[in-house]
């Protein structure tokens, strides 16, 4: 038998019972579909994490000054950082343990029957804090270089701190008392995406912070363009304090690629098991149906053997039938899996990631499953003696 005759016989055997063949193929279809969806959705989800990786986290760098470092970062060093290519905004922040629990009130009158004092955090910041924390001025303005040069007694309060102090409007120049001294509130800062704890803080210029022992910069907040965080994390210590880089600790965002790989591995680990189980079920189904087909076609096998067909011809015929069944399931499963990936991506408004190699490997995997499943039935058919088969 040449290959064409063998192929025709295998196709005839498959099409003789189309319903049974379709049901047998279904197991392989489910297995291949699950595998394709697993790999495709995992790759798409991983790519989506990179594409929509939290821009806030991916573009924020924080430089912290060690406690034992004395004046390692000057206030004007922030200007050196903003000159770095890729930096969009930066600000210096200074606070101490003592300044984290200062008594602040908005009324000069001390009433022993009422709780008028609020324990708030007082921090000294540079003028670029609103941009560094990605916040906005709800009312008023933030202090600028002019306030620092004149050493004006002004403060900016966080949104929650303003509510706690009862400050609702700034047109009458309200003041807050920190200790015995009054400071004019010129702005209310809110909607902060970074350093949200500053919502309950009082922010003062560095010239005022010295009165509360807030002198040295404790951390620098830096925002970068997307993709520039790693570079800025390496350059910022040198720009802030040349020669004292060892005293600065840089907190850079994690790599989005690692997050993508982690998610993809987790998804693969779960769904690959399901896909392999489905493939095993499909292989068992093919083996069972092929064996039943062999038993039903005993007379045909005996007739072929008596007319001169060798054992290898019989084995090749049934092996090819099971292989074609698996190949058909692989092609259908791969097609359904790709359609499912595109559908899921369209529903989630994602960009589908399809590997062309997957579309080629999936049908071959189905054919391999069919080949392995048909080994025993084909060997059993080949071992039949013509006389016994005809009898």
TrEMBL record:
Keywords: Cell membrane, Membrane, Transmembrane, Transmembrane helix. Pfam families: FtsX, MacB_PCD. Belongs to the ABC-4 integral membrane protein family. It is a multi-pass membrane protein. The lineage of its organism: Bacteria, Bacillati, Actinomycetota, Actinomycetes, Streptosporangiales. It comes from Nonomuraea recticatena. The keyword Disulfide bond does not apply. The chain crosses the membrane at residues 21-43, 269-294, 315-344, 356-376. This is ABC transporter permease. Residues 273-386 form the ABC3 transporter permease C-terminal domain. The keyword S-adenosyl-L-methionine does not apply. Residues 21-212 form the MacB-like periplasmic core domain. It is found in: Cell membrane.
């Amino acid at each position: 038998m040449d290959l064409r005759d063998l192929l025709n016989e295998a196709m005839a055997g498959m099409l003789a019972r189309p319903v049974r063949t379709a049901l047998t193929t279904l197991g392989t279809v489910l297995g291949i579909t699950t595998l394709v969806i697993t790999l495709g959705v995992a790759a798409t989800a991983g790519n989506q994490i990179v594409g929509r990786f939290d821009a806030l986290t991916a573009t924020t760098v924080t430089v912290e000054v060690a406690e034992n470092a004395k004046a390692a970062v000057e206030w004007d060093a922030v200007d050196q950082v903003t000159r770095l290519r890729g930096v969009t905004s930066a600000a210096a922040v200074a606070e101490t343990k003592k300044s984290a629990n200062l008594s602040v009130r908005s009324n000069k009158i001390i009433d022993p029957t009422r709780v008028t004092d609020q324990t708030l955090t007082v921090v000294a910041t540079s003028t670029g804090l609103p941009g560094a924390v990605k916040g906005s001025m709800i009312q008023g303005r933030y202090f600028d270089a002019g306030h620092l040069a004149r050493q004006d007694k002004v403060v900016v309060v966080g949104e929650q701190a303003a509510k706690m102090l009862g400050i609702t409007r700034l047109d009458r120049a309200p003041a807050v008392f920190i200790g015995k001294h009054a400071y004019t509130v010129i702005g209310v800062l809110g909607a902060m995406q970074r350093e949200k704890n500053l919502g309950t803080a009082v922010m003062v210029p560095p010239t005022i912070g010295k009165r509360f022992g807030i002198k040295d910069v404790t951390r620098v907040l830096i925002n970068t363009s997307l993709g520039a965080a790693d570079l800025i994390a390496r350059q910022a210590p040198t720009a802030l304090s040349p020669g004292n880089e060892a005293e600065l600790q840089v907190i850079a965002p994690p790599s989005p690629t690692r997050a993508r790989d982690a998610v993809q591995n987790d998804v693969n680990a779960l769904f690959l098991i399901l896909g392999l189980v489905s493939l095993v079920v499909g292989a068992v189904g093919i083996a069972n149906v092929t064996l039943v087909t062999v038993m039903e076609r005993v007379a045909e096998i005996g007739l072929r053997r008596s007319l001169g067909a060798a054992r290898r011809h019989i084995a090749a015929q049934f092996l090819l039938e099971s292989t074609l069944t698996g190949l058909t399931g692989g092609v259908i499963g791969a097609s359904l899996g790709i359609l499912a990936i595109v559908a899921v991506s369209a529903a989630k408004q994602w960009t589908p990631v399809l590997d062309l190699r997957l579309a080629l490997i999936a049908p071959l995997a189905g054919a391999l499953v069919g080949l392995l499943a048909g080994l025993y039935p084909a060997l059993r058919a080949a071992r039949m003696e013509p006389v016994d088969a005809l009898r």
